[in-house]
Design goal:
Helices cover 0% and strands 48% of the residues. It is mainly β. Strands 2, 4, 5, 6, 9, 10 and 11 form a 7-stranded mixed β-sheet that branches. It has a 4-stranded antiparallel β-sheet with strand order 1-3-8-7, with no helix packed on it.
């Protein structure tokens, strides 16, 4: 069982940066690939980025490439999402998710069904 708690959201102006954190409970955090998703008002939840259990492999949605960076610190049981050059269309609730990869080094997990555990989300609002 893994429990995930996101933090770091807030209200910022366009062009600003934010770093989201997702703290995980449990002793096997390093066994899990991690992902970030978001849900904007009136829209379905969409994939943002993912990272392999080791942190070596990452994968991004095309619209986030170059602006967002996912990373993890297995010693702290935490995954991060650095978001730069934020736009009003980035306004959403951001969720982290965990998938037990059973040793796989892949980071290519891009759908909600790929993940076993979810956090409650953190709100990011970008004003123009």
């Amino acid at each position: 069982q893994v429990q995930l708690v996101e933090s770091g959201g807030g209200l910022v102006q366009a062009g600003s940066s934010l770093r989201l954190s997702c703290a995980a409970s449990g002793r096997t955090f390093s066994s899990y690939a991690m992902g970030w998703f978001r849900r904007a008002p009136g829209k379905e939840r969409e994939f943002v980025a993912s990272i392999s259990w080791s942190g070596v492999s990452t994968y991004y949605a095309d619209s986030m490439k170059g602006r967002f960076t996912i990373s993890r610190d297995n010693a702290k049981n935490t995954v991060y999402l650095q978001m730069n050059s934020l736009k009003p269309e980035d306004t959403a609730v951001y969720y982290c998710a965990a998938r037990n990869t059973y040793g796989s080094s892949s980071a290519y997990y891009t759908t909600s069904n790929d993940y076993d555990y979810w956090g409650q989300g953190t709100q990011v609002t970008v004003s123009s």
